[in-house]
Design brief:
Elements: E1 2-6, H1 10-21, E2 25-29, H2 33-40, H3 51-60, E3 64-67, H4 70-74, E4 79-82, H5 97-109, E5 114-118, H6 126-140, E6 147-151, H7 161-166, E7 171-175, H8 179-192, E8 202-206, H9 207-238, H10 242-250, H11 271-284, H12 290-302, H13 305-314, H14 341-351
Parallel strand pairs: 1-2, 1-4, 2-3, 4-5, 5-6, 7-8
């Protein structure tokens, strides 16, 4: 099979490299010429355990290519993944500019039946917009190629993305109705077959449910983090040990231990923008998602906890004092500084006069 992955950032690079390792011919596309040049030279622009070990042999074997030529990559592809960024807009909504620009380019390039996969994290209804954009581009060039837009959200943890891709808990496929959806399911089943040799992992659903599933998963995980941070605040004033509490509740099989650690709040490229996006989606439809909004508030407050402790110890004026921070990225095993709590802490310390 041949696939094209538009966007060679975190999700796109992992997706392309993992499929290439499974024997698929993958072309990773990006408009950033400097990034593509680095990748062609074997210089991986992100830190992700195990990724370099996949990219170099697949590239050497010719199964993995890096290019700025979208038209060439898409031509003849069975599946085209859209894996571009969806940054937060000023109102908290997901900016779909990059997604729809990719969709337009796809419509200008496909030369036969193609499955277009929304891999980017996008709000409910995006697949409809992608479908309309591609259809318009085809109509403008006088082409009648059939296509199907599928939602296949990623569930990759930074620092463990390769393992998450190769050993997924589940593969969510949101399929359109009718003949295009049936045809798309056959293609996607064939693509993901190597990951399902032991037992089926695919969960089939409609496109809108798949789009919401991604946001729902991240909202639930972020909620667990903020819940533990609230409990940590309570534990500190009543004389309890939050780690003991974590052991006590995490051992309940209904709760478990994952994402149940108190800390300085969540960060990274996903949780902050996705929580903002799902809250915005609720407001758009007249719903105040109160738990989601509380998760946001708790997380913003949690980023200031360490600085408040420092000031309680040393006073509000930290002039002449020097502090060291151990751990700058938003989580271990990554170099990702996006929305990292350390940035808030550093800025607050500097504002108080510290080095």
């Amino acid at each position: 099979m041949k696939i094209a992955v538009i966007g060679s950032g975190y999700v796109g690079l992992v997706t392309g490299a993992c499929f290439a390792d499974l024997g698929v011919h993958a072309s990773c596309v990006d408009i950033d010429e400097a990034k593509i040049k680095r990748l062609r030279q074997g210089d991986i622009p992100i830190h992700e355990p195990g990724l370099e070990a996949l990219i170099k042999p697949a590239a050497a074997a010719g199964r993995l290519q890096f290019t700025t030529d979208l038209r060439q990559a898409v031509a003849g592809a069975d599946v085209v993944f859209i894996a571009v960024g969806t940054p937060s807009d000023e109102d908290g909504s997901a900016d779909l500019g990059y997604v729809l620009a990719a969709a337009k380019s796809i419509g200008q390039a496909i030369d036969g039946f193609t499955v277009i996969v929304d891999k980017s994290t996008v709000p409910v209804g995006t697949a409809d917009k992608v479908t309309q954009t591609i259809a318009t581009a085809l109509r403008e060039r006088g082409a009648t190629h059939e296509f199907a837009v599928v939602s296949n959200p990623e569930f990759l943890k930074e620092g463990a993305a390769v393992n998450d891709f190769m050993r997924p808990d589940r593969i969510v496929l949101g399929l359109p109705f009718g003949a295009p959806g049936t045809r798309a399911r056959e293609v996607m089943d064939r693509l993901y077959a190597p990951l399902q040799r032991n037992h089926p992992r695919t969960i089939y659903m409609d496109v809108r449910s798949a789009e919401l599933t991604k946001y729902a998963a991240n909202a639930m995980l972020a909620t667990r983090i903020s819940f533990m941070n609230e409990l940590a605040a309570l534990a500190s004033v009543v004389g309890a040990d939050i780690e003991s509490v974590r052991q006590g509740i995490g051992s309940d099989s209904r709760i478990g231990f994952d994402f149940l650690y108190a800390g300085t709040g969540y960060g990274g490229s996903c949780f902050p923008k996705d929580i903002r996006a799902i809250a915005h989606s609720g407001r758009e439809h007249g719903l105040g998602l109160e738990i989601v909004q509380a998760v946001q508030s708790v997380n913003e407050r949690q980023k200031t906890v360490l600085v408040r402790m420092v000031k309680e110890r040393f006073g509000a004026d930290l002039s002449g004092r020097t502090f060291a921070l151990w751990g700058l990225a938003f989580k271990p095993n990554t170099d990702d500084m996006r929305d990292a709590p350390s940035r808030v802490i550093i800025r607050s310390l500097l504002d108080a006069g510290a080095r």
